């Protein structure tokens, strides 16, 4: 695997931030596919600030086997020259260094400058949209494909909405789909501290995000049959899935809207850089079955007590995240302000292994699109689908990121030449859903029924 002269080696893949909490799990997942039959991943390198920590991460990821001879490269997000040198030695870079609002821009800049492809696990809307505004045109020109949110944020939401949408067979059409996320554990749920930091920074950067959007041309809005859904109560008891739920202020709905806007502007999807006729037909057929819908995400628990805990945590982040001193407290003491849900040391291996998620998608719509204009436009049909899988931050996120990477490496001709995009519009017509199912993330149709109007 390692070249005698690592300074001249060209890698298929580099994982940046490989010694971080999530990074070491990404390394472990990538090693499963390194050099295996039919895998496009033949050469791999790990990059970060501290070589000894990278070595520890590699040893941990490879255990109980001895670590393979994978190059460890020194690179620092505060040193643009080291990032550019790194990017010039690889085809694809996976960025696990967050918070991305703080550390992500130099990495994207180096990838676009070098003309290579880039994936990350960011869940920060302001960062993602700023990268699109700043680098999209150049990325298109040089052939650099930049895709954020290639982890639990926001691939399950994107693929889940498309999976639910495709169950609405003409003349049936969806009007809205509400996702309900349930986190489960046999021991104790401990969240990814990067998710917590993203939420804190999301509050801090809300003003910049709105300012950025006002400065850019408005995106196309999809035509969705029927009226927009009502706001609904703050706390909802969703009997269909047995959960008490509140709105989840994650990136998911924003990322989905970006994909639907891009699809509205490109009804057949994005053209591949060197597609076969067969794939062109497949892409067009796939997108013809995806129908837009209003989309939102809620997080649920089986008890009202769990909901109150979520509300208190949200209040802390919403209030303290608006000013610098408050943010410093939130980031310094995550365990206190999240009521124990997040901690700087991260979860134990046992806590990771025992955790899982279920994400229900309750789609409401019309058995016939013409009914959207009748009787006040009240939906008369419901389709419930579900995605489920292992712990979200350290198991599901690496699975998704690595499968997206393998698609980029193995199916590059079928993907857009370059540009900054959300994951759904890029990976929707590929075999990503099948790959996820093969690696422990299931997609199921739970029920289809007609409602009384």
TrEMBL record:
Signal peptide: none
Stretches assigned to the Saccharopine dehydrogenase NADP binding domain: 14-146
Spans through the membrane: 304-325
Pfam families found in the cross-reference section: Sacchrp_dh_NADP
Keywords, sorted A to Z: Membrane, Transmembrane, Transmembrane helix
Domain of life, source organism: Eukaryota
GO CC term (a single one): mitochondrion
Family membership: Belongs to the saccharopine dehydrogenase family.
UniProt protein name: Probable mitochondrial saccharopine dehydrogenase-like oxidoreductase At5g39410
Protein's organism: Elaeis guineensis var. tenera
Primary gene name: LOC105032237
């Amino acid at each position: 695997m390692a070249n005698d002269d690592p300074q001249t080696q060209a890698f298929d893949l580099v994982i940046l931030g490989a010694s971080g909490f999530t990074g070491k799990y990404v390394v472990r997942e990538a090693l499963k596919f390194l050099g295996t039959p039919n895998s496009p991943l033949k050469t791999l390198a790990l990059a970060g600030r501290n070589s000894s920590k990278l070595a520890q991460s590699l040893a941990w990821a490879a255990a109980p086997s001895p670590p393979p001879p994978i190059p460890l490269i020194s690179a620092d997000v505060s040193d643009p020259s080291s990032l550019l040198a790194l990017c010039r030695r690889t085809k694809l870079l996976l960025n696990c260094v967050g918070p991305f609002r703080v550390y992500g821009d130099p990495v994207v800049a180096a990838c676009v400058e070098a003309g290579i492809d880039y994936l990350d696990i960011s869940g920060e809307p302001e960062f993602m949209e700023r990268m699109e505004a700043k680098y999209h045109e150049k990325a298109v020109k040089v052939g650099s494909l930049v895709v954020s949110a290639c982890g639990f944020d926001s691939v399950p939401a994107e693929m889940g909405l498309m999976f639910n949408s495709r169950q609405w067979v003409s003349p049936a059409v969806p009007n809205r789909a509400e996702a309900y996320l349930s986190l489960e554990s046999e021991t104790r749920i401990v969240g990814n501290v990067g998710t917590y930091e993203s939420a804190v920074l999301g509050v801090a950067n809300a003003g910049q995000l709105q300012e950025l959007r006002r400065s850019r041309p408005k995106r196309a809005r999809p035509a969705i049959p029927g009226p927009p859904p009502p706001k609904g109560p703050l706390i909802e008891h969703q009997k269909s899935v047995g959960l008490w739920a509140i709105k989840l202020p994650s990136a998911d709905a924003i990322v989905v809207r970006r994909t639907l806007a891009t699809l509205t502007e490109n009804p057949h999807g994005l053209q591949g850089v060197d597609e076969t006729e067969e794939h062109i037909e497949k892409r067009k057929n796939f997108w013809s079955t995806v129908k837009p819908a209003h989309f939102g995400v809620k997080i649920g628990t089986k008890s009202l007590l769990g909901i109150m805990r979520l509300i208190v945590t949200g209040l802390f982040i919403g209030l303290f995240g608006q000013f610098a001193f408050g943010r410093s407290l939130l980031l310094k003491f995550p365990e206190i302000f999240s009521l124990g849900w997040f901690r700087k040391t991260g979860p134990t291996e046992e806590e990771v292994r025992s955790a899982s998620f279920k994400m229900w998608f309750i789609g409401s719509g019309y058995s016939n699109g013409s009914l959207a204009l009748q009787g006040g436009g009240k939906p008369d049909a419901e389709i419930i689908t579900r995605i489920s899988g292992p712990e979200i931050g350290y198991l599901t996120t690496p699975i998704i990121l690595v499968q997206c990477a393998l698609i980029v490496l193995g199916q590059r001709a079928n993907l857009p030449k370059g540009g900054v995009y959300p994951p759904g519009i890029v990976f929707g017509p590929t075999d990503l859903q099948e790959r996820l199912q093969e690696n422990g993330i299931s997609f199921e149709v739970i029920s289809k029924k007609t409602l009384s109007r």
